[in-house]
Amino acid sequence: MEIREIAISHYGPLRDVRHRPQPGLQVFYGPNESGKTLLIDAILKLMLGKRLKDFKDIDRVTGMPLGRVALAFEGKEHIFDGKTLLEDVTGLSSSDMRNLFVIRNKDLQISGQADYFSRINDQLTGMEGRRLTKLKEIVRNQGRMTRASSAAQLSKSQDFDWIGDKVAAAEKLAAEIREYLEQARTGQLDALERRLEESRRLLQAINRQIQDQEMAKLREEYDQLCRQVDEYALRSQAASRLLPYSKTKFMQLQDKASRSKANNDTARESKEKLGKLLPLLNLTTAELAESQVRLTPLEGRKLLLDNLTQQTLTAAETSPPPPKLPLRGFSFLLLAVTGIGMLLAAQDSLPEKLQSLPYWTLGAAILLLISEVLLRLQNRSYQKKHNQLVQQGAAAGIISETIQELAAAAAKEKEDIDQARSRQQQLSEKVRNFESQKLYLEENIRAANILAAELEQEVKNELQRLAVQDLHQFGERMEQYNKAQTQCDDLHQSLETAFEQVPARTGDWQSLLQQIPVPADPGVAYDAGQLTQLRQDKDRALTAIDELQQELSRHQSVLSQFAAACQSLPLEKETGFKLPAQFADLEVLAHSASVLELFAAKVTETFDTACELMCILETLEAEEQEKMSDLVGPNKPVQEIFRAITGGKYTRVMLDSKLNIQVEDREGLELPASALSQGTYDQLYLALRLSLAQDLLGNNPGFLLLDDAYLCADSTRIERMLALLAQLVKAGWQILYFTMDERMLRSAPRYTANAIIHLEPLLSDLS
């Protein structure tokens, strides 16, 4: 490869720059601000395009330069203008240019050294060191390992979403689920929803039956209310028809019948008394006639006896009166008894045997009064006629010596006459009394018969009007009326309770009934026992549902906790099985346990597989490491180049297991590159770059772009480096050396025949 032309028409302050570098060592010299770095930037942009991420501080001017770089490669000239790129033609990448073919004083280290060494080794040896590293990282990522090593553990870091912790959590959760499944299946918890649904359906059926029974009850109550209203109407009508057969009317008729019977009894008793009285009246009348016959002859001596009596009375005036007898008191007592007897007879309270007592006592009282009068008369005439009576008595044939004897004799005779007269009077009084009694009894019989007939007729008329035969039938009707009225009262009370009010018009329950909507017929008969049983069944069903709901709630809470725990794990990502957000039953829970176990098994299996793969890759990597150390092996140019540059101070360059550069001095002491001085450090990397570039291109010479690569070297080492470059030139390499170091300006002509290209200072305007 050889750069034949650099033509930059416009790149920042670079305008119309054209250079034709010669084969071999071509030095570009220019002081500070002569555009040396801009020219290198433009060359790289034209050859690499925008793939400049490996270069630092190369974008001092934004945008692509206008121009071209002509490069001869494999017998052909290629033009690179930012569109046709070096990598597409030669296979050299931006990283190759950065680490091998472009050596800048500010950036002598190899970018991404270990990775680049691996890539160079792959290119040189055909091995896959870089791919092994990537594979190890891929395997690590796939296995989610703590590091890319077969001894690594399953990662518990955030980089892998704490997969180690989640596997442990999944295993623990699966064990808990299995344990709960065993308990749940033993307790038949999976049947809770079915049992709850069955209980709810049973409750619905019971509620429907209760509703039907309640509707049937309402309908039956309504029908019963209708029947009661109809029955009340019928009972009211019946009671209205029986209204005349009241107890008051019955008592009135019963009183009249009783009075009629009492009058009939009175008439019968009076007839019986009259029947007994008539023989007595006839006998007494006969006795009176006989007494009259006996008394008539004695009536002629009455005047004489009266005269004698008169005289005796006159005479008796001078004589002590005869002793007084208590006739008046007895007569008054008899009159009182007569009054009491008459009063009791008027009140029908006098016993039948004493009905005639008032008459007898009245007659006796009269007789006693008459006797009292006569005795008094006799007492008055006794003294007057005392003497005359004796004489007259003698003349009359009454022989007496004294007036007392005359009086006694006259009195005795007169007494006999008086007794006969008294007897006659008694008989007359008795006849009159009997006749009076006869008249009384006859009148009483007549009056009682009339009153009894009237009362009996009134009763008959009233019974006939009421269409009953007798009081017994009236009583039956009255009992019917009372029963009907009682039933009406009971129905009234029942209806008032049912309607909770009384009708505006008495007994008009039909109007209230019409205000009540007719309940629908549920099609079943009301059964109070069944309704009670249904309500008890409902209470038991509600209790069972509540218990099932509580148990199901606890069960669902556990299922929800398990579901939430499962949702926190990447199960679908790892197993392909997506678990629902909520677990419906034990089957889903059992499936989740299987998925958890599958998740843990898959992650563990993947990890185990990754560990096995990592062992294989580590074996290959060990082999690769051995081959990679050949990049700085004993036969590589870097050994001779570094020994030559350092004058034999350092005899060997090596790579450790981590691809860090190590050097060995002439005493055999191994040192890391970081322990070298800055100049020796830069020279080490320059030697390494030159060696790797030669190894990369093999027998095909290439080109190098050096930007003051020897700026930190002393003059002796500059000479050595220039001698080294001269050897590369002899091998066909083209070296474009851009410098501002005047030492190079003086030393370069000794190692190249090419004229130094001087760069002119740039204008201050960088637009």
Structure description:
This protein has 767 residues and is α/β, with parallel strands linked by helices. Among the domains are: 2-105 and 633-758, Rossmann fold, CATH 3.40.50.300; 273-319 and 382-449, no CATH class. Helices cover 63% and strands 8% of the residues. The chain is built from 22 helices and 12 strands. The protein has helices spanning 36-48, 86-90, 94-101, 113-125, 129-143, 163-186, 192-241, 247-295, 301-317, 327-346, 357-381, 386-395, 403-465, 471-499, 509-514, 528-567, 571-575, 586-628, 637-645, 678-697, 715-730, 742-747, and strands at residues 2-11, 14-19, 25-29, 66-73, 76-80, 102-104, 650-655, 661-665, 670-672, 703-707, 734-739, 757-758. The strands form 3 sheets. Strands 6-10-11-3-12 form a 5-stranded parallel sheet. It has a 4-stranded antiparallel sheet with strand order 2-1-4-5. The two termini are 34 Å apart.
